[in-house]
Amino acid sequence: SSAASDVYKRQAQACSRVAEWRRNVGQDLSISINIPPQLLLREHIEKTLLAHAKAANLPPSSIVLEITESSFGQDPKLMVNVLHRLAMVGFGIAIDDFGTGHSSLAYISSLPVTKIKIDKVFVDKIEDNADAAKLLESILVMAETLEFDTVIEGVETESQMRILKATGRRLLIQGYYFSKPESEEFWDATFYQGTIPEYTVPDVKPQPRAG
């Protein structure tokens, strides 16, 4: 379909661009690519994605394919099979918008997933809602137990950053707190100079964990 062709085209372009940026800065930059559910069910998707990575001389391990939880409602058994094939050829697999669907961490732990991205809705209320903070903490505890890399999406304020830093957990943070999304031209100019932006985080001492 034209939609699939468009996704494949953009993925090929992204691989090429990231490979160029890696050469410019001399570091192993990685890229995350959102894969729509309908594309996952296409035959031999792993061969097409792998071909694009090889054409750009980009190792598959530097590419993380982001799959939304809702994807598993399409055809669960086939979806699991596809994810295993993608992982086998070296791609990283991440679950995007975790917590907004119906899958559980227990179910996801049976998949070749290395990263989960906690949806923004779990962060929005942690500043003034104790229950929201406890819910997020419980998800982080389980994710840590299952040894997932955990990304917190939608962090916008210093207060949210301080609360997350105080957990003492190893987290990857993304959101407007650091920067709004920049254009491809911005990153072209930045990486062309061989530099990588540095961002500061609040200096917060982790709180003692219960038990």
Short synopsis of the structure:
With 211 residues, the protein is an alpha/beta fold. It has 8 helices and 6 strands; from the N terminus they run H-E-H-H-E-H-E-H-E-H-E-H-E-H.
Comma- or semicolon-separated keywords:
globular, six-stranded parallel beta sheet, single chain, 211 residues, alpha/beta
3D structure, described in words:
With 211 residues, the protein is of the alpha/beta class. Helices cover 43% and strands 13% of the residues. It contains eight helices and six strands, in the order H-E-H-H-E-H-E-H-E-H-E-H-E-H. The protein has helices spanning 2-25, 37-40, 45-55, 76-88, 105-108, 130-145, 158-166, 184-192, and strands spanning 31-34, 63-68, 92-98, 115-118, 149-152, 172-173. Strands 1-2-3-4-5-6 form a six-stranded parallel β-sheet. Helix 1 packs parallel to helix 3 (45-55). The longest helix is centred in the N-terminal third of the chain and has 24 residues, at 2-25. It starts with a helix and ends in a 19-residue tail after the last helix. The model has no long low-confidence stretch (mean pLDDT 87).
